[in-house]
Amino acid sequence: MEALLSQLAFLANQALHDKNFDPSALEELLALFEQEAYASWAAEDQKAAADDAKVSIKDAEDHLQSLVADFSGFRREADEPATEAEPSSPEPDGDARQELGKSPGAAAASTGSNKYADAAVASALATVKSAFASSKLQP
After folding, report:
1. PANTHER family recorded for this chain (predicted)?
2. Alpha-carbon distance 85 to 83, whole Å?
3. Contact, 106 vs 100, CB < 8 A?
4. pLDDT tens-digit profile of 56-88?
5. Taking CA 131 as the corner, what is the angle to CA 126 and CA 135, rounded to the nearest 5 degrees?
6. Is the residue at 43 inside a domain?
7. Structurally, how many domains does the chain consist of?
8. What's the gap between Cα 130 and its chain centre?
9. Would 139 be classed as within a structural domain?
10. What Cα–Cα distance (Å) separates residue 36 from each residue in 31, 45, 126?
11. Is the pTM of this model over 0.85?
């Protein structure tokens, strides 16, 4: 941007002193200013998208961690021996383990991991778009 400003100052000075100055040179320079402004705007927009994706990933990680903690607690409770008056047989224990895989905690953990994967993909896309948008235009 500084190079464009110095070029504008040079052309403005030349326009003041040279009667044969071609104004199309100024128009070309103004077009470069417009391109530079657009590139800066696009880079800021992509940076904001990348920041949003990072926040989304952090939220998904937190959600996934809480689901894993809940699932671990549920699993510990299911693994603890029953304090019933009569001894438990292996069959109900096997049934309890089968139900553990079908528990709401398992479904929630699966949903949480899917949200995390979606947030990671969104972050990667925002990073790639930011890399393309940040290429500077030189006059």
Report:
1. MATERNAL EFFECT EMBRYO ARREST 9
2. 7
3. yes
4. 888 888 888 888 888 887 777 777 765 554 555
5. 140
6. yes
7. 1
8. 11
9. no
10. 9, 14, 20
11. no
